[in-house]
Amino acid sequence: MALSIYDKSNQQYVVNHMIDHSDINLPLVTERKEKFSFPFGDAEFVQIAFSGIFIVYGDVLVKENQLRVKSFDDAELVELHFSIKGGGILENFLTKKKIAIKANQHNIIYTPNFDGIANFNTDRSHKFFEVHFHRDKFVDLTSDSGSLLKRFGETIMNNKPMAISADNLPISIAMYACINDIMNCTFTGGLKLLFLQSKCVELLALQAQAFEYANKRSTPKTLKSDYDKDRIYYAREYLLKHAHHPPSLTELAKAAGINEFKLKRGFKETFNNTVFGYLSDYKLMEAKALLADHQLNIKDISEQLGYSSVQHFSHAFNKKFGVSPGKAR
Question: What does the alpha-carbon distance between residue 42 and residue 39 come to, in Å, rounded to a whole number?
Answer without folding.
Answer: 8
